[in-house]
Amino acid sequence: MLEIRIIEKTKKELRKFVEFGVDLYKGNQYFVPPLISDDVNTLSPSFNPAFDFCDAEYFMAYRDGKPVGRIAAIIHRRGNEMHGTKTLRFGFVDFVDDEEVSKALFDAAADWGRSRGMTTMVGPLGFSDMDYEGMLIEGFDELSTMATIYNYPYYPAHMERLGFTKSADWVEYSLKVPAEVPEKHQRITEIVKQKYGLRIVKYTSAKKAASEIGRPLFELINEAYADLFEFVKLSDRQIDHYVKYYIRILRLDLLTTVRNSDDELVAIGVALPSMSRALQKSKGKMLPFGWYHLARALYLNQTDTVDLLLVAVKPEYQSKGVNALLFADLIPLFNKHGFKYAESNPELELNAKVQAQWQYFEPRQHKRRRCYIKNL
Question: 66 - beta bridge partners?
């Protein structure tokens, strides 16, 4: 017998909700678990400042007392006001390969949203662009990353049977790190630095980095990503939250910032050694030994792959070669640390400006993920 239960937003119940999304992939060599505690915090109204303007309900499917699926239904009131929509987001969705289960989960989420006046359903999306987005539709035999969703190949077929269609696609590239900075990058770097009075600024102190670029980083994201699909500007409380919990885990040598003559932050590049294998070893848990695997991956460069987590350029400096400054600084560091490959992580398939920057990295488009939409 199939049963749909609403999950209480207590730490204990949220942990069960998150752990189902890890247990379902036990033994899968491509799945990379999240840090369970981080996902629990994201889903918790007492922790996540997005609940200032978001409502959410979480559903789990059980068959004969055994969990077989989960889904989060999210109403982003601020986003709906900004875009003039009545959209219900869905995210944190996982299910066994059973049409009855997937239908029951999406029906429960849709009914909840419909009862609150929502007219469309879109996802996978989270509470902000800092959360996981997009269902994998290509690249099931490629190792996932810490910033992305992995799902089984049967998921897209379920979505189509449920009447969902494409809203947007993201693509991902595996990039080959060049042995040296391309000559064209070098030339552009010097031209751009002189023409716009730009300079690269690095940090060796996490405390100083947090104080000088913490808020400006996320304010830059608000500007640079304003026109992207379903983007909603981060609130002041969200920015404070991300500064407090995420700036401190950055690898400072792989953090590159660009400032202009007025000392204004105009671009930033954030990279980390791939944490995928370490997260697999940790099984998504810090204790008892997860912290050890994560620390070794973060600081000892035990991988040949680096994740490009973030590249943001102030709108008035976009398409002016500023990205060349970032990579002129990062490429020698990648080589120094033995990184042979870089993961681009998701970028919208129509974002030609972003994809053009990979021309010197022998790009291989190896993954695609989709945001689905359906009228309620």
Answer: 63
